[in-house]
Task: inverse folding
C-alpha cells in the first residue's frame, strides 16, 4: 500500500485527514501528519513515503528545497478545502502512483523513467486544453514536479500537418502517438535553455509550447529564436520523413496557466 505524508499546522487539515475513511480500499495506509520541516524530513528518512502534501505556510519553503534535492520524483499533491475535493485529489494521486510503479517490461524498474512519462502525458493534456482551470494547472504542475515555470511567459505554436491522416494511414502505419514521439525527437526536449513540449491533437494539428525553466529568469523565452528553431526542425522533418508541415500560429502567452480551458485555449 502507498504511504502519504501531510505537512501542516492547521487543525482543520489535520481533522479532515483524520476523519477520512477507506484508506485501505483506496490502496493507502492512513497518512502520517507532521507539523514542521524538521519533523517531515525525519519522517521521510525513517519511513518510505510515496507522496507528500505540504500546506501553503511560508515556513515550509525549506521543505520544497529539500525535496528538490533529495526526492525530485516524489509527487507533491494539493491540500483541498474540503473532504470531497481531497478525495478526488487522492484518487488522482493513486492513479499517478500506479503509473509510477508499473513494471511492464523485462528491464530494471526505473521510477524516474515512469515519472517522466507521466509528466509528458500531463503536459500533452495541458497543451491540448484539457486542464479545467488555472488553479488546476498550478496544482498538477507541482504534483508532477515539472521543471517549467508555470507563471513565466511561454511561446505557443500551432503547426499544420499537411495530409496528416493520409500520411499516418498510407505511409507511417504506427498511429498518431508514435508519430508524436518521432516528432518530439526532431524538436527535442530542450533548446537554448528553453524546454520544449508538444502534442499531436489531431492527425492534422501539432501543438508545441516552449517554456522558461523554473528559477531561470536569466533565460526568458524568445519568440524569434523559437520561430527560427521550429522552422529548422520542420525542414528536417520534411527531409527525413517526407512530411510537410507549416506554422499556422506562433504567439507569446503570459503563462502556462493560460492553457486552462477556462481561458479558452
Result:
Amino acid at each position: 500500500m502507498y504511504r502519504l505524508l501531510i505537512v501542516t499546522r492547521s487543525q482543520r487539515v489535520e481533522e479532515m485527514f483524520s476523519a477520512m475513511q477507506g484508506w485501505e480500499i483506496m490502496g493507502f495506509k492512513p497518512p502520517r501528519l507532521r507539523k514542521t520541516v524538521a519533523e517531515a524530513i525525519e519522517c521521510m528518512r525513517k519511513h518510505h513515503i510515496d507522496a507528500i502534501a505540504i500546506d501553503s505556510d511560508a515556513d515550509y519553503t525549506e521543505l520544497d528545497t529539500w525535496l528538490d534535492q533529495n526526492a525530485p520524483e516524489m509527487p507533491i499533491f494539493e491540500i483541498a478545502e474540503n473532504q470531497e475535493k481531497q478525495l478526488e485529489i487522492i484518487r488522482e494521486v493513486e492513479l499517478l502512483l500506479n503509473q509510477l510503479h508499473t513494471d511492464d517490461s523485462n528491464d530494471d524498474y526505473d521510477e524516474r523513467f515512469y515519472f517522466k512519462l507521466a509528466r509528458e502525458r500531463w503536459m500533452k493534456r495541458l497543451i491540448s486544453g484539457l486542464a479545467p482551470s488555472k488553479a488546476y494547472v498550478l496544482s498538477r504542475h507541482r504534483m508532477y514536479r515539472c521543471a517549467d515555470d508555470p507563471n513565466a511567459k511561454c511561446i505557443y505554436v500551432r503547426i499544420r500537418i499537411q495530409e496528416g491522416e493520409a500520411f499516418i494511414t498510407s505511409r507511417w502505419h504506427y498511429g498518431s502517438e508514435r508519430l508524436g514521439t518521432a516528432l518530439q525527437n526532431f524538436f527535442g526536449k530542450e533548446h537554448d535553455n528553453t524546454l520544449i513540449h508538444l502534442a499531436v491533437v489531431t492527425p492534422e494539428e501539432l501543438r508545441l509550447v516552449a517554456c522558461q525553466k523554473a528559477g531561470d529568469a536569466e533565460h526568458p523565452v524568445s519568440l524569434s529564436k523559437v520561430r527560427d528553431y521550429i522552422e529548422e526542425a520542420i525542414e528536417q522533418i520534411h527531409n527525413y520523413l517526407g512530411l510537410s508541415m507549416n506554422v499556422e500560429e506562433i504567439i507569446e502567452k503570459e503563462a502556462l496557466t493560460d492553457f486552462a480551458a477556462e481561458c479558452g485555449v
In short: The chain has ten helices and nine strands. The first strand starts at residue 4 and ends at 7. The beta strands are 4-7, 32-34, 51-54, 76-77, 154-161, 190-191, 194-202, 205-212, 245-253. The two ends are 38 Å apart (CA to CA).
